[in-house]
Every structure is written in C-alpha cells, then in structure tokens.
Design a protein that fits this description.
36% of the residues lie in helices and 27% in strands. The protein is of the alpha+beta class. Strands 1, 2, 3, 4, 5, 6, 7 and 8 form an eight-stranded antiparallel sheet that branches. A hairpin with a 2-residue loop joins strand 4 and strand 5. The radius of gyration is 16 Å and the shape is globular.
Length: 153
C-alpha cells in the first residue's frame, strides 16, 4: 500500500502555490524530514490549518454513498467500498492515508474532501505523487476562473 499525507493550506498560500505545487511539495517533505528545525516548524505552522476532526469525520460520513461503509477507532478511520478500502489516521495538521493506488483515493476519499474544503494538498510519502485535490479558484482583476490543474505525477 502507498502512504500519502494531506495538508490543509491557508487560502492565501494555496492561491500563491497553486501553480508552484512542486515548491510546496519540497517544502513539506523538508519539514517532515527536519522537524527539529525551528524555522521550518514555524513556516509550516503558519501556512497550514488544523483539521477539525469531529466535523470532518461527520462530513465524510454524511457524504459517503450508501454502498460504502466506514469504521472508526480513535484516530483511525477506514472507508470501505467493496473489496477496496482506505485507512486514514488523523492528526492535528495532517491526515495520513494508505491506499493501493491513488485512483482509489480519487474515487473513495477525495470527493468528500473536495466538498469539505478546496485547499487540501496531497503528498505521496513513498512516491513522488503530489498535488491539489481540487482546483483552486484564481482571482484576477476580472475575477475569472483560473486554469484547473491536478498535478499528480
């Protein structure tokens, strides 16, 4: 199974890093590998938001189709869809999840997360996959929608 992490990025930084997702990915991986560096800890704390676990779990439960089931044990949440499943471990500023392939997360988990909040960034811990789970609205002088990208390598 592949291991991924999801981070809630503050809107102003999501707007700035949307087309610079590789830089954001490198920063997050640097933070994860160097949590003793005070500068990285402060920067990470400044650009990310905490996950409200109770309301997020309730939202996922409400959003899941009836064909899927969910099992919760403490910080661990498992979502089943037939013989496929995703296990999530919720932390304060990160959701870790395991999935056989990212496509399973795209079908099982990401639709619920997209409807929860648009500024969620996914980083593959065992892979080089990274990207936004939903398009970020780019505000211009004419308030046009920006180009939608999903940058998962």
């Amino acid at each position: 199974m592949n291991h991924y992490s999801i981070y809630w990025i503050k809107e102003e930084f999501a707007q700035f890093f949307y087309y610079r997702s590789e830089i954001l990915c490198r920063f997050i991986k640097s933070y994860e590998h160097n949590q003793n560096r005070e500068d990285l800890v402060k920067q990470f704390g400044y650009i990310t938001l905490e996950f409200p676990q109770t309301s997020l779990i309730a939202h996922i439960m409400d959003y899941l189709p009836h064909s899927m089931s969910m099992q919760k044990k403490g910080d661990l949440l498992k979502i089943y869809d037939g013989n496929r499943y995703i296990s999530l471990h919720m932390e304060e500023k990160r959701i870790n999840f395991r999935s056989d392939i990212i496509h399973d997360a795209e079908e099982i988990l990401f639709p619920a997360l997209r409807s929860f909040h648009p500024y969620l960034f996914v980083v593959g811990n065992d892979t080089e996959d990274f990207g936004w789970i939903s398009p970020v609205r780019q505000v211009t002088k004419r308030d046009k929608l920006g180009q939608a990208l999903y940058s998962c390598l």
